[in-house]
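Deliverable D4.2, example record:
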Amino acid sequence: MKNNNEEQSRSLFGISLSDRPKWQQFLICSSGFFFGYLVNGVCEEYVYNRLKFSYGWYFTFIQGWVYLALIYLQGFTTKQMVNPWKTYVKLSAVLMGSHGLTKGSLAFLNYPAQLMFKSTKVLPVMIMGAFIPGLRRKYPPHEYVSALLLVVGLILFTLADANTSPNFSILGVVMVSGALIMDSFLGNFQEAIFTMNPDTTQMEMLFCSTVVGLPFLIPPMLLTGELFKAWTSCSQHPYVYGVLVFEAMATFIGQVSVLSLIAIFGAATTAMITTARKAVTLLLSYLIFTKPLTEQHGTGLILISMGIVLKMIPENKSVPRSLPKKKELTSAKDENQRNEEEEERRPLV
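Output generated by the structure prediction step:
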């Protein structure tokens, strides 16, 4: 299945990926992802912590409409769909729930603390992959160790951040943990869709997820009264809509790029890339908004780096070791068969 997925013709905003080597595919997709979400991170920090606007459901709703407009400009239509609508109902519910909880948690956590919590999703993504139909992935022990190192580093950083920032509460931790569980299911389910139906495009998945997911945002906005509060606040500061639209456009680039990474490299590898992006966004947040860094922050970042290195190095070494042995065994068997055939033919001559 994986081979079919990799052989499928894919492109990213007009740039062909299928006829390029893996490292170029990785570089192009990662660049689009980093650009989109670095801009997203700066915009969210500005809107939530500087303007004190914490309307996660409403902002996600606005973002969804911007997505649909951009997808329409890309020329996608429902005639190009290869999956039934019901495939995207569960996916959309999880996607919108994750977005809403992530954005809403910023009202109770400062942005770097939220980022570090969300970065721990590498481990649950790996665990969840073993239970998703169509994947049933198994990972070697060293990859779980690398994920644990990553998680410990993130926890250290979060605890240090809790000591230096007053914007930290248990409710925020509960909200971001719920988003974390949803994300672990989301990435694996998206990979399963790409794997079971390689003709699925990034635009189809993003379009259907958004269309089906937007109605899920209306009940929480009405029940919490956020719809009217956000409408009133943004009407008094209309320039916020400009920031939201700009953020959504950048996030759109990042979202399509991350779907390309999931389709080509899988959910677990993509989770590692998103972790690296979160670390970069975090450092930028501290540099741009001049927040204090402590020794505990540094220790956490070192452990994060160790986890990423441990994840990547064994993968590069393990593949080339096993393949030559199989080839040697195969060639040895072929030679023995040839010698036996020659011996059988000699008496007949």
